[in-house]
């Protein structure tokens, strides 16, 4: 039998968008319920950001252990236990999920494990796994249901032969030969991971470079590094067909950039061609929420949908599908609900992008090509890690820092780093972009020696032709 429960704010989805929104709402004194049919933490904690970083750490360790002799350390033959690598990653994910449980308790957020359906802007029906239903009324709804792997008929993911990141994260058996379709963050990170453990990896990208959203120079260095690592990458290429001959035997035909057909047989295919929104069956359209042609929720600058009282944040709204974007949108949506007069937006041009293969790739702001396309008059400063004492000392000389400045104002408009710790180093440049720091200011900021971050200072100096170490 159904009954009614009343909350101020109900958040649908407990990923980095939803759980942050729920905590922020509760911290503001709102009676808050978060509903999710799966584990707390969403893709990020369970099947994305966190477990992949655990896997990638194992891959880095493998890489370093194999090179131990270069550092004067003798190890004997290096072997690995793939199942243990996966097990550790799952364990890390479990610990983080428990952390959200604790935060919900601490902040008095109620959690309901159920499937939610929006009936109206103030009414939700929640169905639990046992089929029992609850009707929940509220003043505002925040939809944070995320996205799932895009599937196209040419590459039917069966979870066994053709897999998505989800199965890649828990595969107990390491593939011997892997075809990766798509060279976005997922394709690139898993290519690095599997290759580090000896899987023969071929990655195919339809566009003209690996990580198409990144600066051309970054993609070039990554392509060189991947080649050195033994990964075969085809860009401006097509996967014409994949045929499962039998379990573990898949024939694929690739058309490379020159139009030449390449035939290969692999034992697994990882499909990483983007994401589709989790908005079907949620009742959104019926509740008056406008969706775009691909099903993403349409929102205004305050994350408000076309139905007053319903907000949407994170991957289900499209734009950059990144956990930190979702968490910041959570703050935007809650602020708009609490006080519409004080509602503010988010600067989508200041969201960093990070890819955690080695060398890592990180960026914030405009690429050189985008700046030029926008007609910006730019000044560019660059510093290679080959000229960094710290990078040489730690055997990580691959990569560079490239900074793009407005030629008139000297203010930074873009930053691109490829290198061992690029994803940590980018934070300084996110702040620089936010406060509109100039090349002169970044160049005059004392950076500790020896650090990789000195390369940021040197790149800024280089924009004025004043770098010291190149
Ligand atoms: P993506 O959209 O970033 O990349 C997909 C790539 O596949 C694109 O480069 C596209 O050109 C290519 N592609 C599409 N169809 C193709 C085809 N038929 N043949 C060859 N190439 C094809 O998507 P993703 O890598 O699947 O990741 C999904 C989302 O998750 C992205 O938004 C990504 O930013 C996010 N993510 C982020 C991180 C991170 O921040 N480190 C890690 C993983 C995922």
Low-confidence regions: none
Number of domains: 3
Helix content: 25-40%
Distance between the termini: 74 Å
Q: Which CATH class of the largest domain?
A: Alpha Beta
Would you tell me which CATH topology of the largest domain applies?
FAD/NAD(P)-binding domain
CATH evolutionary superfamily of the largest domain:
FAD/NAD(P)-binding domain
Query: What is the correct CATH architecture of the largest domain?
Result: 3-Layer(bba) Sandwich
Quick check: average pLDDT?
97
Number of discrete helical segments: 13
Radius of gyration of CA atoms, rounded to a whole number: 24 Å
Write a concise keyword list for the protein shown above:
single chain, 470 residues, FAD/NAD(P)-binding domain, Enolase-like, domain 1, 3 domains, 13 helices, 22 strands, binds nicotinamide-adenine-dinucleotide
What does this structure look like?
With about 475 residues, the chain is an alpha/beta fold. It folds into three domains: about 220 residues, FAD/NAD(P)-binding domain; about 110 residues, 3-Layer(bba) Sandwich (FAD/NAD(P)-binding domain), CATH 3.50.50; about 100 residues, Enolase-like, domain 1. The protein contains 13 helices and 22 strands. Strands 1, 2, 3, 4, 5, 6 and 17 form a seven-stranded mixed β-sheet that branches. The model has no long low-confidence stretch (mean pLDDT about 95).
